[in-house]
Model the fold of this input.
Amino acid sequence: MGGFLLRKAGAALIVVFISSVVVFAGVRALPGDPAIALGGENRDPAVVQAIRHTYGLDQPLPVQYVKWVGRALRGDLGLDARQLPVAHTIVTRIPITLELAFLSVLIGSLIGLLAGVIAAVRRGKISDHAATTSALVGLSLPHFWLGLMMIILFAVDLHWLPASGYVSFREHPLANLEHMLMPAVVLGTGLSAVLMRQTRSAMLTSLSADYVRTARAKGLAERSVVGKHALRNSLITVTTVIGLQLGALISGAVITEQIFVIPGFGRLTLEAINQRDYTLLQGVVLVAATGYVVVNLLVDVVYSLLNPRIRVSGATQ
Amino acid sequence: MSLLEVEDLSVRFDTDDGPVHAVDHLSLTLGESEVLGVVGESGCGKSVSFMSLLRLLPETATVNGTARFDGVDLLRASGSRLRQIRGRQIAFVFQEPMTSLNPAFKVGNQIGEVLRRHLGLSRADARARAIELLHLVRIPSPERRVDEYPHQLSGGMRQRVMIAMALACDPKILIADEPTTALDVTIQAGILDLMRDIRERLGTAIVLITHNLGVVADVADRVVVMYAGRKVEEAPVHELFARPQHPYTNGLLGAVPRPGAGRLREIPGRVPSLAELPRGCAFAPRCPRADEITRSNVPDLRSIGPQHLVACFHPGPDVEAVA
Ligand SMILES: Nc1ncnc2c1ncn2[C@@H]1O[C@H](COP(=O)(O)OP(=O)(O)OP(=O)(O)O)[C@@H](O)[C@H]1O
Ligand SMILES: [Mg+2]
Done:
């Protein structure tokens, strides 16, 4: 197990390094001159030149890159256009998005798993068709449309939930959850739909496996035949799917936070782009890429915990 | 009084290509502590017959007949009654040792599960008992194996784990489906030895399903020979080997290596498809004794000696086999 994780972590480091290069080069390849953007209204060549110098933009690209990475490793992502430390801005925004992501994975997984298991157990019956159809609908609905419809229904018409905005959990836990519920459901729809389909097919496979027949022959109740023997093997497939969907979640968060006016990491990304704030954008994308790699590493860990074959072969190698 | 009485058991699978009659009016009994051998070529309905008794077949199967065990008809008992019998009174060792254990759980857990379910043992007690059972089926260093996963065990060891699991609750009946196929000869002998031992020490009645008459010769008291879903012959083991009546039984015996039996012979032809059985005796197309009668009529089972039944118009030992 240790060796397995070490290999995975090594691979993750390489990926983070490559993405840092891509991020750095990518931001530089964007149209427009960052120094001019930073200067704002002031187009005086002397001023622009001075800005270029303070931000180190007059140095060769490799030197700029090494300096940027060197500082980033120490937690310093530079100053944004408003002269605020980028790292600090990101750190204040990330928990909001993490909460949103956590809630949507929670809601999406619960719904997806439950619907998938029921659909498989009741294959061909009405509940199966209902679940399969809802999943298809859930997959085809764009986030922004679903979000707007929910706002109209639950906020404008029924007044059950606030339409938008954000309250921190520490200030007011209940209000926080009320604000987060709709966005989390919207963001979790895709996950639950994909998960439902994957769970259903994985469960159909395991339910017809020989070991499920063994479980029945032991006199176990259907509850443990399905909930223990069949589900455990399906979870191996399903965790991978959740892992793959987390990437989609990051991009979904950008749109969802925009609709529900949640000041999270996704909205910060859009702000950075809209304001042509290169330092900020560079930091945001680097953090997103690193986060993605870390999440995948965690998925590998969970996967190996669920699948004894990987765990053991990793240990003996 | 028999422990298990199966009467007129029929199993039909509804497939895309129409119905498949896998078992056709099978009747048999199993006495206390008896070892019954069930023999026949691949696809003749051995596994399906016995899985149907515990209602372990997929939903596409329709099962008819009765199966009396301990005052209940297994085929009609309530789900909860059936679950009390499965694993506790009647235990199954499946034919497929590689896939019949759950890959996601330690073998100790899988053996312990049946103990906790039926005997209400605690986790710790179940684990301790699982080690004893692994010891009983002669798995070396059971204290270590108990915490291993199925993929860490060889096929023979998995088969033993299946047997340990089946024996866990000291069942009245053990149904062992080809417990020795896919194992090499020395391990085969070990497993058969184990079966004999279990019967002697625990008094368990055993149904030993196999396509190999050589295996039943050593272990079984009585033998049922099946062909294309039907019972074609039944006799005590010595009687069957001394006076085989059905040409199919004769054919099977010809394929068993025995001292003084001369060259091994295969039965010519192949098992017919169950979806398109011939009109008369199902064995007729392969039978050296076939004639007009056998090709157009299905022979009934009839008694031909003490405890000896055969379904054939022209019963009797092969001349060659006797010589
Ligand atoms: N789920 C199923 N659907 C349709 N037909 C089936 C199904 N299961 C078994 N059968 C058919 O029933 C017949 C009997 O199968 P069974 O497994 O009992 O044979 P067997 O005597 O145990 O053979 P083997 O020695 O290969 O184990 C076979 O012809 C098989 O094709
Ligand atoms: Mg079989």
